[in-house]
Please model this.
Amino acid sequence: MPIGWWQNDSEEYNMSRYAEVDVVETSAETVESTPNTDLSVLNLVTTEEARFFKQQVSILEELGVSSTTVSVPDERVTGEGALAGRSTVDYLRFLPRAIRESFGEYDLIHANYGLTAPAAVLQPNLPVVISLWGSDLYGRFGPMSKLCARLADATIVMSEQMATELGGNPYVIPHGIDLERFQPADQQAAQEDLGWDPGRKHVLFPYARGKSVKNAPLAERVVAAARERLDEPIELQFVTGVSHDEMSMYMNAADALLLTSDREGSPNSVKEAMACNLPVVATDVGDVRQRLRGVHHSFVAHDDADLVDCLVSVLDADVESNGRDVIAELRIEQMGERLLSVYRDVLDE
Model:
């Protein structure tokens, strides 16, 4: 395989870089409300700063799970903010460190994202749980992820569509949403804080322009066509490199979220927009159609022309969605309980 085949396609707003393999230990003792720790998990992840991974670790700590994280070194970002990805060398450096760490006092190893799965299944000591996030199953790493899943004790996917693609009997556990962090707020105040012109419509695209799987050129064409149809100023707001804490402000300042991805698992941006009652217009990828079922003023488009029609409809109506009522079932606490149940199932086998 060519150098660079290990490039990371995982979705993330906040991108940082690392100089070496990171091993970060957290424990239930660091969380005041945590009960006595009864499980110890070795987590493998491409970057420990992934917002949904950090939430996962935090909620599991509250449920009594201690965690040590080994992450892959060196995340490189291009001038346009796109994730350039790690090289084969980076993953070769990661592999022996992950395997050595597996000789520690852990109950199981959890590989988060398919590119960390080979290290999990190659270590000889611990039961293996693998979580696939989307691009690691649908993209060029799909065959490797499927092979590793067959060797794991349990595999978790984000949607029923991913379960069908993977085959077998995986657990379907979408990433949960922090409903305290993501909630509706005053749009005018949010726009003022961000310096956005209140006389314009704002369409949020919360990804790097250069990340090809998100298909930013299609988003630009859709917004240009909607601008012409409505004959009013519409700004396409590319948002990347901001903290997870700030994303709620962007969601509340916007008039719509536009998702034009070629493939997804269970996109967190859609669920977070729903939690803020921000209307969503999206391509038919991952579990988006399932998530938007019953949500007013939000649409899954059939083709490019339909994307334009749907965005025009949302911007013209200028009303909130009822997404928060629908997404409440995916609260982060429920996700933690379900993950803990998977760990118990694996250890009881």
In short: The CA atoms of residues 21 and 69 lie 10 Å apart. The chain has two domains: 22-175+331-348, 187-329. The two ends are 36 Å apart (CA to CA). The chain has a mean pLDDT of 86.
